[in-house]
Amino acid sequence: MPITEILEDNCKLFGNDTALIEINPERKETRRITWREYSLIEPSHGEYFRREITWNVFNEKANRFANLLLNSGIKKGDKVAILMMNCLEWLPIYFGVLKTGALAVPLNFRYAADEIEYCLNLAEVDALIFGAEFIGRVEEIATSISKNRMLIFCGSGQCPTFAEDYNELTADCSSEAPDIKLVDDDLAAIYFSSGTTGFPKAILHKHRSLMHACIVEQAHHHQTRDDIFLCIPPLYHTGAKMHWFGSFLMGAKSVLLKGIEPKYILEAVSNEKCTIVWLLVPWAQDILLALDSGEEKVNNYNLTTWRMMHIGAQPVPQSLVKRWKEYFPHHDYDTNYGLSESIGPGCVHLGIENIHKVGAIGIPGYGWEVKIVDENGQKVEKGSVGELCVKGNGVMECYLNDPKATKDVLKDGWLYTGDMAQMDEDGFIFLVDRKKDVIITGGENIYPVQIENFIAAHPSVKDVAVIGLPDARLGEISAAIIEIKKNHTCTQEDIDKFCQALPRYKRPHKIIFAEVPRNATGKIEKPKLREKYGAKTLVAAQNLG
Asked: From CA 406, how far away is CA 392, in angstroms rounded?
């Protein structure tokens, strides 16, 4: 069934129960507010801010926005982009778009003005709703993007002159559900690839994919009505939203936290009695560092309700999980693998019962098929490295307006992920690396993730990225960019000595101590590193030649 029906059911069954809570730890607001006021309050800087809405209000807000769009000429099959930071308005707006039969098009909040315009044009967007943080960027392109396109401002403060005001527009709209018939085969959403190899691709999904994500998430993590999910990652990304879908399916309460500092996360779990938290690797590392240093103490918080921590979006070092279990031995743990092309996390997952296999991304997810193939598309033997392929109801329809790219990755219903992996004798899959990130040095394949996981176990290493740099003799050499923990010292000799346990060909040829850049979803931005350090190396290699 279309995912909008879940919202209607939650409204009927649990209408007066809390659906969503928004917390901004850097602001304080203790006054209880009504749903008519909640989007209008702008507390003074430096104060704690907490807002909440029930399932009834969630649904009413979605219906009002849907009716606004319909009254403005948006129809089934049109596209509505959302450019907003995480907030209480985000999800009702998303569902309002879906209720019209239009496609929701979430945009990365890090996009520059030209990237915003590119994505709006690529997805053929008919309306854009944006938050206060994006006024400047949207203003830069307002003249060009406003032609035949509705611009809606959602935020506190004065509405810019080039847009229309969300609060004013929705105030007089009906709170009844629009009479739009939806089926599983209707198009539902466009998500954009991370754009790590250039401008992003537009990934097209049907309602069937969204519903599949709900079922998969709940099957993996066993959410009940009593669970409280702490959502920290950006909602524009499939990862955050699809993990929330498991709670949404059960009508459970969720918390949107605006802040990633260890203190904020631990406070939110403690104060809101959260049971499930999904973290990105850098945030989990920061929590461990804060606990190691004594900056934060577990005993200062009531964390007894916290039952599960899971991580996705990038490879997870085994050393991180081992350290985590030392502080939180009672936590269930899961690793989730997925792509926006497979409607986010869950096509492969470790499983909370398989903690003994930490290091693997896991086994095929609920309702998913998996295979590992060679360059000719033939299955490889267990233990051999090949490209990971997945198949299931969550696979995208296509890359919009890009038939060549679609043909490259969709073959006979299988999604070719571009990730290199291998399967052990027990059927568990280990991610080796991105196909494009494999380093070929002197004819030998080197998989950076394996080296990164090894170096991450060094007690002074906070983060590490391994990339290939051009070399006149070997073609490429491996370089490790290493970020050191605060108040720790580490030298190249220390790393070289530590890496003696690696086979000689896997030892980094070059060590660079620097910050490791990650994007909003926690992925290492290797193109930036290759651009920064590769150009210098290329010049040197050319001079040697």
From this structure: 16
